[in-house]
Write a structure and sequence with these properties.
Blueprint (H helix, E strand, L loop, with lengths): L11 E3 L6 H31 L6 H30 L3 E2 L1 H34 L4 H4 L2 H14 L1 H11 L9 E2 L6 H5 L8 H32 L5 H30 L8 H11 L1 H12 L2 H12 L6
Parallel strand pairs: 1-3
Antiparallel strand pairs: 1-2
Helix pairs in contact: 1-2, 1-11, 2-3, 2-11, 3-5, 3-6, 3-8, 3-9, 6-8, 8-9, 9-10, 9-11
Length: 312
């Protein structure tokens, strides 16, 4: 990648993962394949959960919105980096960087929120089955999803409002493949970034509260499942709960590690790998993870592949 002196410019330089041209082509191919696979998988999930009558329960309604968030999150970061690798120009304008921060943090927060709602849905379905229709009625599900999307605007707005007050100096080089908040804060000239750090701490505290809620839901779920006399019933519950738990652990653990780990001027290969794990892999693998152990989704996908139209 050609490193330009952008000290006097308002934009930033995304360094990506390597200056080696062959590795850049390889990275572009990997990210492009991941983007195409992730987009295709999420579009399939969105399509079947919208059109197929078998997939109209609250669980699949929330899964559809998780796929919308995943597809949006992938589209914010990956195409930009593929373009950087192919053109060898890592320059991104100030406005583009701020928009990327706004949308990425918003979609990431939306994913945390929808995963929390999905864990509560599973808790009600397993632990309070007789009250499920009342607690998770259609209107309440719509209100929950509306709250998820409205709340996703808050992180981006807070970050952008606080970053606007930051003064940048020196070469505005971001050692990442997208405008990552910790990397942007590292470019600040003085202590004017502390407001943004306060925003990050606040959002981290709320995200931790969501995590505690998810853990609490699954503690009750597994304690209820283990008391079930039927092995078939236990297997059915695990087939819907374990994929969700895996997605939660993958997304939150890698995201927390990335944001709590101090940034450096020479990021390690591990730091770059972790950034892929919380930005690219979850939205790419979620459709696969949710489909592998769910017989209903697998049967609908087989029907989609074998037929040109949906049947009742």
């Amino acid at each position: 990648m050609i490193v330009e002196n952008i000290t006097t410019m308002r934009g930033f330089l995304l360094m990506g993962f390597s200056d080696n041209r062959e590795l850049q082509i390889l990275h572009a191919l990997f990210f492009l394949v991941a983007y195409l696979l992730g987009s295709a998988g999420n579009v399939i999930i969105i399509t079947i959960t919208t059109l197929d009558p078998q997939l109209q329960s609250p669980m699949y309604y929330f899964l559809k919105h998780l796929s919308i968030l995943d597809l949006s999150s992938l589209s914010v970061t990956v195409p930009q980096y593929v373009d950087i690798c192919l053109t060898q120009s890592g320059y991104i304008s100030y406005a583009q960087c701020m928009l990327q921060i706004f949308f990425f943090t918003g979609f990431a927060w939306g994913e945390v929120a929808i995963l929390t709602v999905m864990s509560y849905d599973r808790y009600v379905a397993v632990c309070l089955p007789l009250h499920y229709e009342v607690i998770m009625g259609p209107s309440k599900c719509r209100w929950a999803v509306t709250a998820v999307w409205l709340s996703s605007v808050i992180p981006g707005t807070l970050y952008i409002a606080s970053i606007f007050s930051i003064r940048f100096c020196g070469d505005r080089i971001i050692h990442q493949f997208f405008c990552d908040v910790p990397q942007v804060l590292k470019l600040s000239c003085s202590d004017d970034y502390l407001v943004t750090v306060g925003v990050a701490d606040f959002l981290s505290a709320v995200a931790f509260a969501c995590f505690i809620g998810i853990v609490n839901s699954y503690v009750h779920i597994f304690s209820t499942v283990l008391r079930m006399p039927s092995a078939e019933s236990r297997s059915k519950v695990f087939s819907t709960c374990l994929p969700h738990l895996f997605v939660v652990l993958l997304f939150l653990s890698t995201g927390i590690f990335a944001y709590l780990n101090p940034t450096s001027d020479s990021p390690t290969a591990l730091q770059f790998l972790v950034s892929i794990f919380y930005t690219v892999l979850p939205p790419t693998l979620n459709p696969v993870i949710y489909s592998l152990r769910n017989e209903t989704i697998k049967s609908v996908i087989r029907k989609l592949l074998l037929s040109s139209k949906f049947t009742g």
